[in-house]
Design a protein that fits this description.
With about 80 residues, the chain is of the alpha+beta class. It contains two helices and four strands. A four-stranded antiparallel sheet has the order 2-3-1-4, with helices on one face. It is globular. The N and C termini lie close together (about 5 Å). About 20% of the residues are buried.
């Protein structure tokens, strides 16, 4: 399954390997579709590929760390 999400990183998390950690821990393959990173904020649109359960667990993990996650509806491809 594939799901597209928009992530907004707070300043203190910009330099942390959050996407890499989520990908390894939950066996999710991220594909960066768009990104904008400044000194104060990071925004990224990702396409996540994996099982539905792994994607959901990965998204929850990212949210729990303080990253804002917005699901891009209508763009889910199976």
């Amino acid at each position: 399954m594939k799901r597209r999400v928009k992530l907004t990183f707070p300043q203190h998390l910009i330099k942390e390997p959050i996407i890499f950690t989520m990908a390894k821990k939950y066996d999710v393959m991220p594909n960066i579709r768009r990104a904008r990173v400044t000194d104060t904020v990071g925004e990224m649109v990702l396409e996540l590929e994996g099982t539905e359960e792994n994607i959901e667990n990965g998204i929850k993990s990212i949210r729990d760390q303080g990253v804002e996650v917005e699901l891009i509806e209508g763009d889910i491809i199976e």
